[in-house]
Specification:
single chain, alpha+beta, Jelly Rolls, Arc Repressor Mutant, subunit A, five-stranded antiparallel β-sheet, four-stranded antiparallel β-sheet, 21% strand, Cupin_2, AraC family transcriptional regulator, DNA-binding transcription factor activity, HTH-like, RmlC-like_jellyroll
Amino acid sequence: METSPYALPRPCAMRDLSPVIHWAQQHVRTPAYHWNRRIYDFELLFVKHGEILVWIGGEPHAARTGALLVLPPWIPHVVEVRSEPNAELLGVHFDFFDETPAGHSIIVDELQINPQAFSAVPYVQDKPLLPGYLFPNVSGRIVSLLEGIVQEWNERRSGYDTACKAMLLHLIALLVRHGNESMRQPQPKYEERLLSLADEIRRHCSRNWSCAEMAKYLLVHEDYMSRQFKALMGVGPNKFVQSVRHQEAKRLLRETDHTVEWISGAVGYEDFHYFSRIFKRWEGMSALQFRKLSRMI
């Protein structure tokens, strides 16, 4: 991750991190809207639905549904929405060491730059804690943590800042693991096919996505497909399918009045009771409890 004259690297260990949330929201943007700015802190920008193109320091990063971007301090970035009619995003602004001046803007005013307000960039063993800007696919656990942070930060109940800190520390640890596992890159000739397969699963999650079906998509053996899939996406193919189905089920629970049984079939589960067990394992609550809670926010 690139550094700057102001957002300086800081040697640290994981135990030294004390992250604090400055802003957290879910928002929907159309192609007419775009960012062109610099920020004082970091932003986690998750693509729930749609596609965006993000230029960070002049380098393009295409992010589709399921991708997470880490926008750094100081370095200019431009965000363009590429999907119609919109893109649904989760944004979380934070710093790693709780050092941003109270009440200070998170957006840089180019006419009045405050050099002391830029967040430090954590380095562990002489390497940036998060080595890249784009995570093409993140696990359902990371998505649930992001949603939990947004919910806690907006409800502002007693102890919300502690809850946000705990979830963000957990999320950062998962991203570090994800980055380490993703360093085992797949054969380049399969990368585009794997990304295409992931998009196909997101668009048609109700299909019977067996390992045999996915291997046939790549024209390779099942075991080889599984290794290559995990190397690129950070999770195995079966867990990826479960994650996509879980996110779609949550969307349908929030946005429609369909029964839970109907939703379980719509996302690819023939056995409603199995879906109920899987949902509770992923979310920590039943589908009905999730629907009730999501409509209270």
